[in-house]
Write a structure and sequence with these properties.
The longest helix has 12 residues. The chain has 2 domains: about 180 residues, no CATH class; about 200 residues, no CATH class. The protein is built from 4 helices and 27 strands. The strands form 4 sheets. Strands 1, 2, 3, 4, 5, 6, 7, 8, 9, 10, 11 and 12 form a 12-stranded antiparallel sheet that branches. Strands 13, 16, 17, 18, 19, 26 and 27 form a 7-stranded antiparallel sheet that branches. The chain has a 6-stranded antiparallel sheet with strand order 15-14-21-24-23-22, with helices on one face. By secondary structure, it is mainly beta. The radius of gyration is 27 Å and the shape is elongated.
Length: about 425
Amino acid sequence: MIYRLGLTLAGPSRAGGRSMGQDSVTVSYAAGWDAGARRACGPLTRAEVEERDRAGDPYVVLHRVPGRAVPAEVHLVAWRDHFVGQFAYDERGRRTCDVDLRLLDGDRLFLRRFVERRYASPEQPDLAPDAWRLTVELLPGYAGRKVLEERGDHGGSFHTPADVPEERRWHDRGGFGVRAAGPSGPPDGPEPGAATAQEGALADVEEPASLWRPPKPLHMELPVNDLFQPGNPFPVEPWEGTVTAAPRHIAMVRIPSGRLAVSDPLDNKPRELAERIPPGEYALDTAVIVGEGEYGGERFPVTEEPAVRLLIRDEPAVAWELALSEGEDPRLLLDGHAYGFGTDGAAGSFADAAAWDVLSDRVRHFSAEDDDDGGCESLGDGHVRAVDEATGSDLVSFCTGGDGTWPVWLGRSAAGELVSVVVITSYL
């Protein structure tokens, strides 16, 4: 049932296989798929994969055509991660299609991303970087984006709105996974096209680096608590002997509404976090790392400030999660991606979202060196504080390591209480 921008392959047949063009297709199952070697790992029986399906554990469904070393299609199923992926391969074992579907409402899958590849010659290798490629990215409620890239002699890329109709964006969950692959085989006999032990068992060999895994959003990898505690070794290239120093206090930030915005201070509309905080005044600190550098035979001290933290409660965070804004769905994030605030000026800020219009306007006037009624001041080191005395609200800005999108992280205590809101501001 692979999605090919309008082409849906035939569904399962009563014989436990299905038709793909003029070829007879057999179906088998495995625990994993080594995308680099293009081989299955850990063959599974129908009963085993049905149990995985019920538990939400990942598994793969292999659709084989006689005479091909590589399956014609590999379906990658991970219900717990709200994901179904599909790879399609040509007769030379080269990947021609990638499909990324997301389970959003219990029984329907949304087409999140589609990639089609065309190879210029029989000699062009699998996933050749100069192969023609079409990429379509979609989000519910939006037209989406279509990127046509032509590599090699043609070069260049073209970006246009996606033209995928609504009925092609959504698919029934029942059409995917083990339940869509046909009825069970005999309980004590081999299944049609069953994978063999020679294909590798995950428990017997080291997992390959290219073993497929369900896509995961970006997660916090840094020991943030250590960053804000002095005396911890913390390597920062290219400097030497870098260790954490005592955090530097920037300012107190008043959030009387409990609605926290973490956003570029010049945004017309802020990125307000869905998480509410108790109304109050909170310390904004920056982590500090010190060490030594060398240039031209001379050594000199260096200082880095790689993160800012709004301290909600004076407790250590034992778990970190991506902060979300209204309308953001983590189930739609691509592998390694994250939501965050965007900036074209390498700046962010913590502010009371309820007073954003006044606070941001004062920063805008201050940045333009206009008269601004004294409601904004420089705190040094790139930090600016804007004040709205009518509401008792503040905005305090900070610098990032560049333009782009910067994730915001929520730190929680062992009891699940929100204790801090953190932005990693450099590329550590």
